[in-house]
Amino acid sequence: MINKKKLNFWQILTMNFGFFGVQFSFGLQQSNMSAIYKYLGAEEAELPLLWLAGPVTGLVVQPIIGAISDGTWSPKLGRRKPFFLIGALIASISLVFMPYSSSIWMAAGLLWILDAANNIALEPYRAFISDKLPEKQYSFGFLVQSFFTGLGTTLANFTPAILVSFGVLALSDKMDNGIPVSTYWAFGIGAAASIITILITVLTTSEYPPSEKELEEIQKAKAQGNVISRTVKDIVEAFKVMPFTMKQLIPVMFFPWYAMFCYWQYLTSALSLSLYDTLDQNTIYFNQAQLLTGNLNGTYNIICFLIAFALIPIARKLGAKRLHFISLVIGGSALLCMPLLNDTTVLFTIPIGSGIEVAQIYLFSFGLGITWASMMAMPYEMLASSIPAGKTGVYMGIFNMFIVIPMIIQIFSVQYFVYDLVGQNPINIIRLAGIFLIIGGVFSLFVSQPQNKGLADS
């Protein structure tokens, strides 16, 4: 068994820096893909199906990459870092080409490639924490990932608005396909961020080598050319002996991730209807709703990275599951209140330049930021102490299925049933998201954890 060294703050920050680039890419998708589809001619009811790429690629890619990375070792690059590099490179190329999409299906195809690449890079990052850190530092490691999730997504969401507000580009500047020029530049910046941040992690962070027994098994599997069969065997075996805690986390993951997919798909439309009483993507009001979506998503991610470190002592005192319950209830209540808020009442002014006015509508994103910080850390903290050593990659990959399966169910249920049930009103989809966040929080209270591990409840 490896005696892992305790890492200092900067070492943990550096090893997770590539997580920033991956989340920057995800942030661009969350705030811009629905609008891109609409600029290319998609209808409201078609949006869920067009978002299918993310969950399906995650469902397929992450367990496979997790199992393969468990059985990988490169003397030069290590176990997880080769996958960081491959994913970041493909993602960067996809981000560059996305704004040039000439049709809905070209954009959808690029999204499939982009999501596959992001999942290749993302999955080993969860296992990277368990590989590198002693168990007492798990919570800190995962909350640093929450910090970079918030920071990366924040900058991704605000980039188009910054380009417009500082006069670099005009709100009305569009490419030939109708996509705003600000979106083009944001995706280009995201491509650079994706590869540069991953390179920083790869070049500055080493990995622990496998034991002699593990190395023999890896070399044997490689010599026999049975990597695929071994991968399938590892995934099947992991399902059969899945820890009880992991099973209890299924509803804890299902309801919040169903909710977040509703939120990402329909926020722009809900804002356009709630604030400007229109769903016409050809109006300046819809453009304003798209920019506001980026600002609001950026705000909840600012809250996420600002509060991530503050959650560490709170989690130690309350326990991971109680903190997760409180966080999800706050975010769910915030989404339920969203349709009641407006963008004309000024809450306060940030003293930057001539002053940045913060409107009432931003209140809900403050609450959602607390939820997002917890979602990016607490379920993984509850899981990490319950899975066997040497299987972190495959189990983290399987755990991602608890994220993507709700997304797939959301896509088809909203496409063919739920959207009609809520009166074909995107505002009601946001309300449903709020209810589901609260339900997920309630389920978290019933999770049992190994005692005296991580943030286990006493």
Observed structural traits:
single chain; mainly alpha; Growth Hormone, Chain: A; two-stranded antiparallel sheet; 18 helices; 2 strands; globular; disordered C terminus
Describe this structure in words.
The structure is a single chain. With 458 residues, this protein is mostly helical. It has one domain: MFS general substrate transporter like domains (Growth Hormone, Chain: A, Up-down Bundle), CATH 1.20.1250.20. It contains 18 helices and two strands. A two-stranded antiparallel sheet has the order 1-2. Strand 1 and strand 2 form a beta hairpin. Helix 2 runs parallel beside helix 5 and helix 2 crosses helix 7.
Order of neighbouring strands in the sheet with most strands: 1-2
Strand content is under 5%
Our count of domains comes out at 1
Task: Pick out the low-confidence regions.
Answer: 452-458
| SSE sequence, one letter per element | HHHHHHHHHHHHHHEEHHHH
Summing up helix and strand content along with how strands pair, one would put the structural category as mainly alpha
| Assembly state (oligomeric) | single chain
Instruction: Return Rg in Å.
Output: 21 Å
Q: How many strand segments?
A: 2
User: What top-tier CATH class fits best?
Assistant: Mainly Alpha
Please name the CATH architecture. Answer: Up-down Bundle
Number of alpha- plus pi-helical segments: 18
Mean pLDDT: 84
State the helical fraction.
Answer: over 70%
End-to-end separation: 27 Å
Short description:
Helices cover 72% and strands 2% of the residues. The protein is mostly helical and 458 residues long. The protein has a two-stranded antiparallel sheet with strand order 1-2.
